[in-house]
Amino acid sequence: MTPVVFVHGFLGGSQQWQGQIKALAEHDVLAVDLPGFGLNAHLEPLTSIPAYAAWVLEAATAHGLARFHLVGHSMGGMIAQDMAHQAPDKVQDLVLYGTGATGVLPGRFETIETSMARSESDGAQATARRIAATWFLHTTQANAYQTCVAIAEQARLAAILAGLDAMRMWDGVDRLGAIKARTLLIWGDRDRTYQWSQIQQLWTLIPGARLAVLPDCAHAAHLEKPHMFDALLRDFLSRG
User: Contact 199/100 with Cβ under 8 angstroms?
Assistant: First the structure.
């Protein structure tokens, strides 16, 4: 079966995908930790979305993956879009989840500039806890909040600022029509980070894109309603 590559979002890590890895047990799976985040928090962070995309492509090659399904969440969805442009022959099917093509994130719970300023004043750990709370409909009371915080807190301030700046400087709108991979969009209808306008843009401009909206979910729908999310993922990949 075609292997699957998972790319986490800002302040995320590979460990957030444990449920999906189990759900796709028939596939070989590569869940990366981007430089500066998760299990690779000790690595120097990169400074642009294309650089992160190239890094993930190199990691896939190092694992012997010539062609794969690609799942990208949030900032990881931006990276996945860039990967689909950099190496279109490698990406068989594309899942863009809770993401968009406009890096300034219009309608986000706060602007990128505000997050950068607050990160510098509050510090990395407080920033990780505060931003992770926005990922869930029930904020700090969500079942998976503490797990995500433990991952998010591994990032240093330099990685937080680099990730925010990489998103702010990236724009993929003009290239959406060139995406060749069969594409599924997944979005939680209470997402505080990526508003409907971003999802609608992806759905409208990526040729043949499918759309699944999960009700009563925020930015971490794969952790809030994992059975629904996993069923969508399995169904889409099985039809590729």
Answer: yes
At residue 183, the 3 state secondary structure works out as strand
Coil, helix or strand at residue 191: coil
pLDDT beneath 70: ranges in the chain: none
What stretch of H or E contains 182?
Answer: strand 182-188
Closest CA to 50 of 192, 221, 175: 175
The predicted-structure confidence for 130-142, as pLDDT tens digits, reads as follows: 999 999 999 999 9
Alpha helices for 87-156 (secondary structure H): 112-122, 124-133, 145-152
**Rounded to 5 degrees, what angle do the CA atoms 212, 87, 52 make?**
80
60-83 pLDDT tens trace: 999 999 999 999 999 999 999 999
Three-state SS annotation for 190-219: CCCCCCHHHHHHHHHHCCCCEEEEECCCCC
Find out whether 92 and 239 touch, Cβ atoms under 8 Å.
no
| 3-state class (DSSP) for residue 24 | coil
Q: Contact 124/153 with Cβ under 8 angstroms? A: yes
If you compute the radius of gyration of the chain from its CA atoms, what whole number of angstroms results? Answer: 16
